[in-house]
Amino acid sequence: MKDFDVIHRAYLNKADIKSIILKDALICFSEHGIESTTIEIIKKKSEISVGSIYHHFKNKEGIIASLIFIALDDLNRYMEHYLLQATNFERSIAAIVLSYVDWVDEHPLFAEVLFSGKFYVFHSQYKQELEQKKLNTKKLIINWFSTPEYKSRLNSIPLDLILSLIFGITEHYCKNWVLGRVDNRPKYFRRELALSAWKAVELYF
């Protein structure tokens, strides 16, 4: 399961207790929903004591936050990999969108937690770290476009809008797919989604 690969990239030791808890929590959240999943359910699935779970994550929100932070870091790694293959501004926009589409398509359980779990993290002690993770994504994109060959175009785009322009339609479609509201996988529309992002950005040139 590619979803587990995300955890393995964050925790190289597959036998690490945190890794085991997160993998089983991911399954529980998918099977029962985030709201209905309790620490007791995760304990039964993982066969790890409640005390140990609390020791490593403090509470359920800590588990959700850990999964979301791992997901956001992994998404950024995907994005960097795709961007390194882009040769101009338009292809860079496409690379960002395609990295997001492909990541969601390949990691649906993580994507579900990412879309459904942010509310819980935003209203918890982990809010500030969540904001920092989101800022890291914005910085990655801005830094990429801050090179001399792209800088003039970047300066034409309101920075407060840049993430919405690039991810808006793509994020909306991916969320609907994860929640079962549409049938076609995100990869089915990857070209259309990349083009829609470019058209939104192109309006500022």
From TrEMBL:
Presence of keyword DNA-binding: yes
Protein name: HTH tetR-type domain-containing protein
Cited InterPro entries: DNA-bd_HTH_TetR-type_CS, Homeodomain-like_sf, HTH-type_Tx_Regulator, HTH_TetR, Tet_transcr_reg_TetR-rel_C_sf
MF GO annotations: DNA binding
Keywords: DNA-binding
One Pfam match: TetR_N
Keyword DNA-binding recorded: yes
Residue stretches making up the HTH tetR-type domain: 15-75
DNA-binding feature ranges: 38-57
Native source organism of the sequence: Acinetobacter gerneri DSM 14967 = CIP 107464 = MTCC 9824
